[in-house]
Amino acid sequence: MSQTKIVAISSFPCYGNAGLKPMLTILSGHLIPVPSILLTATSDIPGFIKTSTAFETLLEGTLEFCKDSGMKVVLFCGYFYKASQIDFTVKMYYKYKVIITSVILDPIMGDDGRIYVEKEILNSMPRILAIANIVIPNITELGVLASGNLDINGQIQELLSQHPALTIIVKSIRSKKERIGIKIRSLQTYCDIYHRYIPVKFGGTGDVFVSYFINNYIINKISLPQSVKKAAHETLKCIKKSIKLGGNELICV
Ligand SMILES: Nc1ncnc2c1ncn2[C@@H]1O[C@H](COP(=O)(O)OP(=O)(O)OP(=O)(O)O)[C@@H](O)[C@H]1O
Ligand SMILES: [Mg+2]
Question: Distance between CA 62 and CA 95 in Å, rounded?
């Protein structure tokens, strides 16, 4: 039986463990990386430099190759550098729909109430949300996709009423001081998962969490709630190991 392949769009930093780097470690041979931008280092490293990729050529060429090879693929959409990349990805989705079995979207736009992408990305994100089967925002990103004046549950309900077939996984919800959690919602699923919060910040934990989730849910075909729970604990394990090793880089275990 042929391997499940994940065509993954996100950033690729030379130094540091974020974007496509942990995805490659965790999903290894299953991953077909399509970098939206190359960086000398992750954005937390002072003086990092960005250099653009031939994104359209890479994405279309990759999907054409997958089609010619008789593959079925999952399309993962992470960090987009330009809004035009979102529009091109939607166009490619319709062109290669016969080989794309599902679309998973991590709508990377911001964190902790701060937006770090250009405004046009915020405007284009609903177009890629419309083709997504699973969306995995943090609460800042959920607030961009839904009405800002609603609470988290209200925002989820609003998205579900607009996209009834969507599965929504809201990550990184701080509850009590020492807890962090995830809400999973679809028409069939209502599940909250909370676990221990470690008061430390490593860049790339969101990418690590999503990579483990894809590995559990898509590759190993574990149930949706168990895939999320396992991914959260695997991410926690990476954080603990990284603290133990004493550096500022997130280690995947
Ligand atoms: N400090 C932490 N302690 C415990 N678990 C964590 C911590 N940080 C992240 N996690 C786990 O990883 C999941 C993803 O959270 P994270 O904040 O990394 O997502 P994000 O905001 O989308 O991405 P990022 O913060 O990397 O930009 C959380 O739901 C949680 O399960
Ligand atoms: Mg976060």
Answer: 13
> What pLDDT, in 10s, does the model give residues 195-217?
999 999 999 999 999 999 999 99
Residue nearest (by alpha carbon) to ligand 1 atom 24:
206
- What is the domain partition of the chain in residue ranges? 5-245
C-alpha of residue 144 to centroid of ligand 2, in Å? 15
Task: Using the mean position of ligand 2's atoms as its centre, give its distance from the Cα of residue 112 in Å.
Answer: 7
With a 6 A CB cut-off, is 111 part of the ligand 1 pocket?
yes
**Mean pLDDT on 89-110:** 98
3-state secondary structure at position 248? coil
Is ligand 1 within 6 A of the CB of residue 173? Answer: no
With a 6 A CB cut-off, is 60 part of the ligand 1 pocket? no
Overall CATH class of domain 5-245: alpha beta
Residue 232 has pLDDT above 90, yes or no: yes
pTM of structure: 0.97
Backbone phi and psi for residue 126, each to the nearest 5 degrees, phi listed first: -60, -25
Protein residue closest via CA to atom 1 of ligand 1:
198
Residue 244, C-beta contacts closer than 8 angstroms, at least 6 positions apart: none
The dihedrals phi and psi of 204, each to the nearest 5 degrees, come to 95, 0
Q: Which ligand is nearest to the CA of 170?
A: 1
Say if CB 184 and CB 169 are below 8 A apart: yes
- The tokens describing 130, both together, are 């419309």
